Amino acid sequence: MDLFRKWGKPVLILAVFFTIAYLMPAEPIDPWQMFSLKKAAYMVFALAFIEALGAAAIRLLGNRKGAILTGFFGGLVSSTATTVDLARDSVDAPPEDLGKQTLTFLSATLAMLTEGVVLLLLGTTEIHVPLLLILSGPILAVVLMIVILTMRIPHREVADREVQLEILPIIKLAAFIIAILAISKLLQHFLGHSGLIVLTFLVSLFEIHGSVIANIQMHDAGAFGVEFLGGLITLSVTASFISKMFLLWTIGTHKLRRAAMRYTIALFAVLIASWLVFMTVV
After folding, report:
1. Which of 42, 94, 110, 239 is the most exposed place for a label (fewest CB within 10 A)?
2. Residues 46, 118: contact at Cβ < 8 Å?
3. pLDDT tens digit string along 125-144?
4. Cα dihedral 51, 55, 57, 59 in deg (nearest 10)
5. pTM
6. Residues 122-145, buried b or exposed e (16+ Cβ, 10 A)?
7. Residue 219 or 55, more confident
8. How far is 34 from 30, CA to CA, in rounded Å?
9. Which of residues 218 and 124 earns the better pLDDT score?
10. Do 28 and 36 form a contact (C-beta atoms < 8 A)?
11. How far lies 68's CA from each of 37, 54, 100, 129, 130, in Å?
């Protein structure tokens, strides 16, 4: 009974999401032959699965390096929300917590980049391996940063608790994706590729999930090629970096934003280098 209380609800929710995705029609339902209910449903299932996996891992593994788990699994749900919480908490935190705060920030960034890879692998009819190069560079760089910082962070245990899976944020994300797809098509019709560039940047200031999913589906529908898609993905990550630095700059402490700025500039340089490598391959 105790096992069912802790695991039953998230397993049931995931089973329902998967069943819905499996039963959805694969054919596009819109006049432009772009939006597939099955593909969108599988995307939402993937995000829900990642969220449940993160919550379960925290309970099973404990907070061995609590900042890593808190930042990473919080970032899987929303890296922006995690950054806001971190910035607010930093105001009242003691100065010696700076290393832990920075590690949480980097872990949330790693979660965002990892989610981008998952969406690229699951969201395209034909996987374009060069696209993974764009995100692999920053992922390797942030992992190295985390490994170095981890040696300074003490262990911390997590209390035993029920594994939670929030349904409403996932449903909101699905509606958000559909809205972005519709707006993307309108902007592309009236403004061409420049409209998509503006929309991608603005949406990614909040979260990159919606813009990445929408752009992947538009690419699959033949709206643009893999080279332009790679540019949009790079722009999404860049916008996310900018928004997180803005949040830390306006809410967080001076020491935290200075440390985060240093790492973010390095990650941005790696991102640009990875994009240039991608451009030489495609």
Report:
1. 94
2. yes
3. 666 788 899 999 999 999 99
4. -170
5. 0.69
6. bbbeeebeebbbbbbbbbebbeeb
7. 219
8. 6
9. 218
10. yes
11. 35, 12, 8, 28, 29
Give the percent of the chain with pLDDT over 70.
67
Q: Which residues of 227-255 are buried (b: 16+ CB within 10 A; e: fewer)?
A: ebbbbbbbbbbbbbbebbbebbeebbbee
In the chain, the amino acid numbered 2 is D
Distance CA 265, CA 243 (A): 13
Give the number of C-alpha atoms closer than 13 A to the C-alpha of residue 126, restricted to the C-beta side. Answer: 8
Helix ranges (DSSP H) in the chain = 2-23, 37-61, 66-92, 98-123, 129-150, 167-191, 193-204, 208-220, 226-251, 254-281
How far is CA 58 from each of CA 47, 84, 159, rounded to the nearest angstrom? 17, 21, 10
Q: Following DSSP, what letter does each residue of 215-248 receive, concatenated?
A: HHHHHHTTSS-HHHHHHHHHHHHHHHHHHHHHHH
State both tokens at 59: 């309970």
Q: What six digits make up the tokens of 219?
A: 């690419």
Which tokens in the block code for residue 188? 């592309």
Distance CA 44, CA 110 (A): 20
